[in-house]
């Protein structure tokens, strides 16, 4: 608690392999703690902070620690008591804190799946959306956020021979029959409600490697990623997906491999690929011929909307292809994720199965 939280962190960052979890209550901090959080994340140490919303050190330590720990892929959960300051510490009913400690100490580490190979890095993926709940025992509301309060998934970064850059795979708790997966060129944001819903349905979410020496995915290297995953039981027809410029790269691979695609899902897409020989808007015929369904979610104020999605929709329909577009009034380019993910998730689930 308070300065004691700082002392706990100071010892923990010097001994990250000797810690099962950290419970910190309105904790202080120091430069050493802030600069060495990576060691705790690497050792997958779960953190829980219980804080007051008007504690003067909330913004100096807890919120920065939360943000930094997210960047390293670590698990951090917070409980922020509405209208409470630095005191009183803890909770009148400490059951949630005890449950967190017991769960962390008793936790069995997951076994890496066979597709990760020998060289990989494991981190965690979870939503950072906040819940605001009434706690009568505390006589206030508490903001709840982090993996102790929502589903948390294993995320593996793997290296494959002859593929420049790492591929990232988020694994569902229970894979759906046939091991469906989403193949994308961009990283998954922690507020991506569509991918989170798909994970809950048993989909794998894969970010294909983007080489450092090129401006986008290399088709031959993505082919190797596809070959590796399908050889390990993944579906032979993934969902190709992406937001913004990454959508154009997803289209490019799908056009090169139309027999290996279940559907395409794009959010506010830029129909441009840096490495495609022919740009997607000029080369939709292979997708239409293969009968690949397409779904776009766009903001009405997105500057890419008219010259990308509307043109793609018109051309695809002329080619006999099936394309659905949802336009969200008043939204711009950000956030790209639809307000209600249900329509997109239902479309993807139906196409992938």
Describe it for me?
The protein has 353 residues and is an alpha/beta fold. Helix content is 32%, strand content 21%. It has helices at 3-14, 31-35, 37-42, 58-71, 95-106, 193-200, 219-231, 245-256, 285-289, 305-318, 342-352, and strands at residues 22-25, 47-52, 76-81, 120-126, 131-135, 140-145, 152-158, 167-170, 181-184, 204-207, 239-243, 263-267, 294-299, 323-328. The strands form 2 sheets. It has a 9-stranded mixed β-sheet with strand order 4-7-8-10-9-11-12-13-14, with helices on both faces. Strands 1-2-3-6-5 form a 5-stranded mixed β-sheet, sandwiched between helices. Strand 9, helix 6 and strand 10 (204-207) form a beta-alpha-beta unit. Helix 6 (193-200) crosses helix 11. The relative contact order is 0.09. The mean pLDDT is 96.
- H-E order: HEHHEHEHEEEEEEHEHEHEHEHEH
- First and last CA, distance: 51 Å
Unreliable residue stretches: none
**Which percent band covers the strand fraction?**
15-25%
What structural category characterises the helix and strand content? alpha/beta
The average pLDDT score comes to 96
Please tell me how large the radius of gyration is: 22 Å
> What's the number of extended β-strand segments?
14
